[in-house]
Amino acid sequence: MSDSDEIVLYTNPMSRGRIARIMLEEVGRPYRAEILDYGTTMKAPDYLSINPMGKVPAITHRGQTITEAAAVCAYLADAFPDVGLAPEASSPLRGPYYRWLFFAAGPLEAAVTARSLGTLPPPEKAAMVGYGSYDAVVEGLEHALKPGPWILGDRFSAADVYVGAQISWGLMFKSLPDRPAFVDYAQRLEARPAWTRAAEKDDALMPKEG
Fold it and tell me: By CB neighbour count within 10 A (0-12 exposed, 13-18 middle, 19+ buried), where does 107 fall?
């Protein structure tokens, strides 16, 4: 494998980098993880040359740098089409795939974050934000998941990695209601071997108590 073909993951076990690691485990290609610390190596010149925002995750591959967890998922699915984690461009599932991947990266994360910070807009200002209201986002997400078992029905995709991580964390931190559709979906994702491998690797890097 040439240097340009090497996949390097820049991450921290207490970050959205966990999503990128799950996706890499789903892809099943070798990768090297560079573990960065908040406030130090994440803000050092070497890493700022990769991501000027000084945030993780980021990956480098084939001379390209990809940041943002949803973009990493989409990129890896397209970079390794043989794995089948993205519908073909001609597939009728391609539209829903984009729809729910970007729904989770946009309205879902924004609404959940705003609620957690106590900054949801009043009803009369809801039209000013892209998600409208937290309740509308939750209802839309539940509606999308009810057919199951995955966001595209029977086909698992990179969209499930991102959507599923958001739901899993939302349930863990009580920022999403524990509706059966969410709980069942998160359990299916967490039972996948790639999720288990990724969780074990990141959990082993967590700071030890005491």
Answer: buried
Ramachandran region, residue 148 (left: φ > 0; alpha: ψ -120 to 50; beta: rest): left
Domains of the chain, earliest start first: 3-85+196-203 (3.40.30.10), 94-192 (1.20.1050.10)
pTM of the model: 0.95
pLDDT class of 208 with cuts at 50, 70, 90: confident
Residue listed under structure tokens 């980021």 = 58
End-to-end alpha-carbon separation of the chain, Å? 41
- What's the longest Cα–Cα distance across the chain? 56
Instruction: Name the residue type at position 6.
Output: E
Cα–Cα distance measured from residue 37 to residue 58, given in angstroms and rounded to the nearest whole number: 14
Sheet holding 58-61, edge to edge: 31-35, 7-11, 58-61, 64-67
What is the tens place of the pLDDT at every residue in 21-50? 999 999 999 999 999 999 999 999 999 999
CB 168 within 8 A of CB 176: no
How large is the C-alpha radius of gyration of the chain? Answer: 17
